[in-house]
Design brief:
Layout (H helix, E strand, L loop, with lengths): L1 E3 L9 E2 L7 H7 L7 E3 L5 E11 L5 E3 L3 E6 L2 E7 L5 H16 L5 E10 L4 E7 L9 H4 L4 H10 L12 E8 L23 H13 L5 E5 L10 E9 L2 H12 L14 E5 L4 H9 L4 E5 L8 H8 L8 E2 L5 H13 L3 H28 L1 H6 L1
Parallel strand pairs: 13-14, 14-15
Antiparallel strand pairs: 1-2, 1-3, 4-5, 4-6, 4-8, 6-7, 7-10, 8-9, 10-12, 11-12
Helix pairs in contact: 9-10
Pathway: Purine metabolism; IMP biosynthesis via de novo pathway; 5-amino-1-(5-phospho-D-ribosyl)imidazole-4-carboxylate from 5-amino-1-(5-phospho-D-ribosyl)imidazole (carboxylase route): step 1/1
Organism: Gossypium barbadense (Sea Island cotton)
Family: In the C-terminal section; belongs to the AIR carboxylase family. Class I subfamily.
Length: 378
């Protein structure tokens, strides 16, 4: 990676040279040696991560949750919070970020950009001593946004809570592709637009309007007077119950069709199985999501073999189960799991229980009043 010492940011002032033979052309692109260049060894990363860190004037330090940043032409394109990495990697990334900021001076918010390598190492890439694009999601997703946190730190107020108040968030940058104004990942309609001579602004406003139809979406428009290639014109933040749900909503937002409540990501798995019941155990061994095994009645043993197989999963591979052929209970158990983080689902489950209770009491009163013979013959 060949970089300029000055004015190198947002994909500007850096070029990748994949071989020694490409170095001359890369140097020419950057303006030659007179501009002041340096070379970094390429880091074979599999993910780019970032940690926003706040440091107070009293040297107190707090870290925001680790996020994954996805870049397009070396410019931050999408941020996913929290990052989809194992707990050990999250802790290691936080530790590296904490130590990096502890070694510096100054108060405020610092963005620590990191590389995750295939062998599980965390490499320090860059430290930006300011609020950063990787932390813009905190406006909607955290108890204290990075901007409020920066002010708290600089003026000497206690640092705020950096934890997320929503389970997940995705930030999507509105990047202009070129001078005429098309937008990254947004399909420009076939008919030409003309909005005061700048069709890109109208395309951007269409995307924002579409975003506002998505549950949990907030649009931020920076009101910059002109578009330049790969310039950040704004961003859209989606918050919701999981990154999987938000990825589905983002894909829907970027399609030409409107939002139609697509499959919003899996949170609980019900695996039906008969006989040896391999399916629930195999699924549970491959995913961190909760798995409910549904034993299915087969032609022999009436599903008892399936039930015993599911409840005897090896240690470390938990699978919940219900009675043979009781798909209703499997579905209700899944709803209860989801209801822990969804007030609407929890209220619906409460209503279902009340309705069931009323139904049972009505049947009991009829049995008491009419007797069992009349009751059974109705």
């Amino acid at each position: 990676m060949i970089k300029s010492k000055r004015l190198a940011y947002d994909g500007q002032g850096n070029v990748v040279a994949k071989s020694e033979g490409e170095s001359s052309s890369a140097i020419d692109v950057l303006g030659g040696f007179g501009r002041g260049l340096y070379v970094e060894k390429w880091a074979p990363f599999i993910k780019e991560l970032a940690v926003n860190v706040a440091r107070g004037r009293d040297n107190s330090i707090l870290c925001y949750p680790v996020v994954e940043t996805i870049h397009k032409e070396n410019i931050c394109h999408i941020v996913k919070a929290p990052a989809d990495v194992p707990w050990r990697i999250r802790k290691l990334a936080n530790d590296v970020a904490y130590k990096a900021i502890s070694s510096l001076e100054g108060a405020g918010v610092f963005a620590v950009e990191l590389f995750l390598t295939r062998d599980g190492q965390i490499l320090l890439n860059e430290v930006a001593p300011r609020p950063h694009n990787s932390g813009d999601h905190t406006i909607e997703s955290c108890y204290t946004s990075q901007f409020e946190q920066h002010l708290r730190a600089v003026v000497g107020l206690p640092l705020g809570d950096p934890s997320m108040k929503t389970p997940a968030a995705i930030m999507y940058n509105l990047l202009s592709e070129d001078e005429v104004g098309s937008f990254s990942s947004f399909p420009v309609p076939s008919s030409p637009f003309c909005f005061n001579g700048e069709p890109g602004f109208k395309v951007a406003h269409q995307l924002i309007a579409r975003a506002l139809e998505i549950p949990g979406a907030t649009a931020h428009w920076y009101d910059k007077p002109e578009m330049r290639r790969q310039r950040k014109m704004g961003h859209i933040t989606l918050v919701g119950p999981s990154v999987g749900v938000l990825e589905a909503r983002l894909k829907s937002m970027l399609r030409e069709e409107g939002y139609e409540n697509p499959n919003e990501g899996i949170q609980v798995i019900i695996a039906g199985a008969g006989g040896a019941a391999h399916l629930p155990g195999m699924v549970a061994s491959l995913t961190p999501l909760p798995v409910i095994g549904l034993p299915v009645r087969a032609s022999t043993l009436d599903g008892i073999d399936s039930l015993l197989s599911i409840v005897q999963m090896p240690r470390g591979v938990p699978v919940a189960t219900v009675a043979v052929n009781n798909a209703t209970n499997a579905g209700l158990l899944a709803v209860r799991m989801l209801g822990v983080g969804d007030a609407d689902l929890l209220a619906r489950m409460n209503q279902y229980q009340e309705d069931t209770r009323d139904h049972v009491l009505t049947k009991a009163e009829k049995l008491r009043k009419d007797g069992w013979e009349v009751y059974l013959n109705q």
